[in-house]
Write a structure and sequence with these properties.
Length: 465
C-alpha cells in the first residue's frame, strides 16, 4: 500500500490501514465435549474443568485481522503478503460511507497446565505472547484522502480528524490461575476463577489525533490542531510497508515488567442432578473481564504531544525512504515545522481490557449451540489511541462426541463484517477459523483468521455413592 508519509499527520495514521494480517481467541471452539484449558486465558473459571482430570496444552496459535476500509484479493493474502501491497492489484477500497477501522492480533499460547489439589482447589499456569494492531475513527472523507498522491478533490477543504489514531503493542505474559466451585447442589453449579499475570513488554507505539484539521493545497498544506506520538525505539518494522517484518519485534524488549488481572465466573444447570452419577448440564453461562493492567515503556526521542500550526510547501513534509521515524521527527523539528512539543520520556500502554460472555445449550447428546460475545472496554483519550480487541458476537452450532466434533461459527465482527467459518476437533487436536467458508467462497475478503492447537485431557473417574 502506498503510505502517505508526505504528511506528518499520516506518518502512522496511514499505516493504520496497511494490511498487517494476523484470530481472536478460538472463536467458535466448543468446550463441552473435551477440554477447556485453551479458554483459561479468556475466563479463569474454566480452570475448574480440571476437577475431573488434569489438562495440558503443549501449544496453540491463533491469528485474526480485518478491516472495513478495504477488500483484499485472496491471492495476495494466501501468498503471504509478499512485500508492498499495490492498490488496484492487491486490494481495493471499500466505498461505503461509514467510519473506517482496522484490527489485528496474533497470539501464541503454551505450554499450559491445569490440575486439582485436594479436590476443591484448581490451579493453572499458562504462557502467552501477543501482538495487537488497532486503528480507526476515520470518516469516509478522511479515508478518501489517505494514501492518495493527487488529492485534487480535497484542495482548499479543511478535513477534520477527531479521536483518530493507530496503536500497536507486543508483549508476553505468564498467568497463574486459581479457581474453585462456589456452589454445587448437583442441580446448580457455580464456578469462579482469577488469574494474576506477570507481563513483559516488547514493543509499543501510538499516534493519536484528538482534534486535527488538515487542508491540502496544490503545492502546500495547512495543518492545525494537536497530535500525540508515543513509541519505543524498536517501532520501525511496524511503520514500513512489509507486514512480514513485524515478527522481528518479538526478539527486542523495550518495555518494563507489569501485572495483569482476569476474573471470571461460570454457571451450569443440571436438570437431572444426581449425587451418585455425573450428569450433563442443559445449559451453561460464563462471563469474565480480562486484561486489567498495563506495562510501562521508555519512550524514544520524538515521542510527545505537539500543537501544530503548519502552513508550508508539501515537499518539506516528504519522508525519505532511508529515514527512520526518529530521524524524520528530528528533521521536522530542525526545520521548525514542529514547535512547542511536550516531550515524553515514559508512557504506559494498557492491556486490551474486554468483557466476554459465553452461553451454550446442549440440545441432545451430540448437538450443542454456543453464543459468544466480546465487548471492548477500552476507550481512547489521555493522548493515546489504546490497544483493544474488536468487539464481536458469534453463534456456533456444533455436532460431535468426546473424540470428534465439527462446528459452524457464524460471526458478526465489529463494523459491518460478517463471516462464516468451520471448526474441527479430532481427539486432542483442534483446528478452525471463524472465516474459513467466507474466505473459500469469496474472491475478495475483509476479514481472515485461523487457529490450531493441541490439548491433552487426563480424565479421572470419580466414584460416587
Amino acid at each position: 500500500m502506498k503510505v502517505a508519509l508526505q504528511r506528518i499527520v499520516f506518518v502512522v495514521l496511514a499505516t493504520a490501514t496497511t494490511p498487517k494480517v494476523f484470530a481472536q481467541q478460538f472463536i467458535g471452539l466448543n468446550t463441552t465435549a473435551y477440554a477447556a484449558i485453551q479458554h483459561m486465558p479468556t475466563n479463569p473459571a474454566w480452570v475448574n474443568n480440571a476437577a475431573d482430570g488434569m489438562e495440558i496444552m503443549p501449544f496453540s496459535v491463533n491469528a485474526l485481522a480485518g478491516t472495513n476500509a478495504y477488500y483484499f484479493y485472496k491471492k495476495f493474502i494466501l501468498n503471504g503478503f509478499g512485500g508492498k501491497a499495490v492498490e488496484g492489484k492487491d486490494y481495493i477500497r471499500d466505498p461505503q460511507r461509514y467510519q473506517k477501522h482496522m484490527w489485528a492480533n496474533l497470539e501464541m499460547t503454551g505450554p499450559a497446565i491445569s490440575f486439582a489439589y485436594k479436590k476443591e482447589h484448581h490451579f493453572g499456569v499458562f504462557t502467552r505472547v501477543r501482538q495487537l494492531h488497532r486503528a480507526g475513527n476515520i470518516t469516509s472523507t478522511e479515508f478518501g484522502l489517505l494514501g492518495q498522491s493527487t488529492p485534487e478533490l480535497y484542495y482548499d477543504q479543511a478535513i477534520a480528524f477527531r479521536k483518530a489514531g493507530y496503536t500497536t503493542h507486543t508483549f508476553a505474559e505468564v498467568g497463574f490461575t486459581y479457581g474453585r466451585i462456589l456452589r454445587n447442589d448437583y442441580y446448580h453449579i457455580v464456578k469462579g476463577g482469577v488469574t494474576v499475570k506477570y507481563l513483559a513488554g516488547f514493543v509499543a507505539g501510538s499516534v493519536y489525533a484528538g482534534s486535527l484539521d488538515y487542508t491540502p493545497g496544490r503545492d502546500s498544506v495547512k495543518i492545525e490542531g494537536d497530535i500525540s506520538l508515543l513509541y519505543t525505539h524498536n517501532i520501525g518494522p511496524f511503520i514500513d510497508n512489509n507486514a512480514q517484518n513485524d515478527l522481528t519485534s518479538w526478539f527486542q524488549r523495550a518495555g518494563r515488567s507489569g501485572l495483569g488481572l482476569d476474573i471470571g465466573v461460570q454457571y451450569e444447570y443440571h436438570p437431572e442432578g444426581n449425587p451418585n452419577v455425573a450428569t450433563p448440564y442443559l445449559f451453561s453461562i460464563a462471563a469474565s473481564i480480562t486484561d486489567l493492567g498495563g506495562i510501562r515503556y521508555i519512550a524514544d526521542t520524538g515521542s510527545g504531544s505537539y500543537d501544530l500550526a503548519i502552513h508550508t510547501d508539501t515537499a518539506r513534509l516528504v519522508k525519505l525512504s532511508y529515514e527512520g521515524i526518529n530521524e524524520y521527527m528530528m528533521k521536522l523539528e530542525g526545520d521548525t515545522l514542529l514547535q512547542g512539543g511536550e516531550q515524553v520520556e515514559k508512557f504506559r500502554m494498557g492491556l486490551p481490557t474486554a468483557f466476554r460472555l459465553n452461553a451454550d445449550y446442549n440440545a441432545g447428546n451430540r448437538v450443542n449451540f454456543t453464543l459468544n460475545m466480546l465487548l471492548n472496554l477500552r476507550g481512547n483519550g489521555g493522548g493515546k489511541y489504546r490497544p483493544a480487541y474488536v468487539s464481536y458476537i458469534n453463534l456456533t452450532p456444533s455436532y460431535g462426541t468426546r473424540n470428534f466434533q465439527v462446528g459452524l461459527p457464524c460471526t458478526m465482527i465489529g463494523y459491518q463484517t460478517f463471516t462464516v467459518g468451520a471448526v474441527f476437533r479430532f481427539g486432542p487436536f483442534y483446528i478452525g477459523s471463524s472465516s474459513a467458508l467466507t474466505t473459500i467462497m469469496s474472491r475478495k475478503i475483509k476479514n481472515i483468521d485461523g487457529y490450531a492447537g493441541l490439548v491433552l485431557k487426563f480424565r479421572k473417574e470419580e466414584r460416587r455413592y
